[in-house]
Design a protein that fits this description.
The chain has about 240 residues and is of the alpha/beta class. It has helices at about 15-25, 90-110, 110-115, 135-155, 185-190, 200-215; strands spanning about 5-10, 30-35, 45-50, 70-75, 120-125, 165-170, 225. The chain has six helices and seven strands. The chain is globular, with a radius of gyration of 17 Å.
Length: about 240
């Protein structure tokens, strides 16, 4: 990663923040976009923060250098309700943050990705897009859109040597999932739903993302990598 230019959208918390720290430690130039800053941004080497609300109509990415070696789009939502109680506006909000934000980011930065002549894009989905899970209608719909977008762009951009892949986590110990893991009994119940008997940690997702950004994965594109303790593929007896 040394000297690579990487854009991380949603890098002030959770998986995004963990990724920013790891990229900085490997001497990448990290361009962070999020609604709010983080004190660590002033301490980490080669981290450049820009405040931005990804749901706004007009996004200014003029600060991005002419060559961009990777984009990681991390924003996510957890809005778990019975289908009949999810408002149309909530469906729209989940779609705007998860799908439209990614579309706007990628459209605005296509030229710098092309200039890298070998860039990598990593988007985030959820295990719920593959595995039918009650009360996940809004987020599963939005993240399924993310996976469809990634496959289409992987095909369209392959000749330009831009790879596009997706990471689909199960529940991960991040601030976004704080309410779902707020008590020991909740954490234990969540862990038991996974074949590997634990919930995800930020490092699990960071390690997978670093692999997809690196040249070690340069023959991988159009894929959804399930980082979920086996939940999406294994049924325990």
């Amino acid at each position: 990663m040394q000297g690579k230019n990487i854009l991380v959208v949603g890098g002030s918390s959770g998986i995004g923040l963990g990724l920013v720290k790891e990229l900085s430690s490997q001497s990448a130039n990290v361009y962070v976009v999020s609604r709010s800053s983080h004190p660590l941004f002033d301490e980490l080497a080669n981290v450049f923060y820009t405040q931005m609300d990804i749901t706004e109509a007009d996004l200014d990415f003029s600060f991005i250098p002419k060559q961009l070696d990777g984009i990681v789009y991390c924003p996510g939502t957890i809005n778990l309700k019975p289908f009949h109680r999810i408002s149309i506006q909530e469906f729209k909000n989940d779609w705007e943050i998860n799908v439209m934000g990614a579309i706007k980011t990628l459209q605005a930065n296509l030229r710098p990705l092309k200039n890298a002549k070998g860039a990598s894009v990593v988007l985030f989905s959820t295990v719920a897009s593959t595995l039918g899970m009650g009360f996940h209608a809004s987020i599963a719909t939005a993240k399924a859109g993310v996976e469809g977008l990634a496959k289409s762009l992987a095909a369209e951009w392959a000749f330009q040597k831009i790879r596009v892949n997706v990471i689909a986590p199960s529940i991960t110990n991040t601030p976004l999932a704080e309410n779902l893991l707020s008590k020991p009994e909740k954490r234990e119940a969540s862990a038991k739903r996974h074949p590997l008997q634990r919930i995800g940690e930020i490092d699990d997702m960071v390690n997978a993302t670093m692999f997809l950004l690196s040249e070690k994965s340069n023959w991988i594109t159009g894929q959804t990598l399930n980082i979920d303790g086996g939940m999406s593929k294994i049924k325990m007896l």
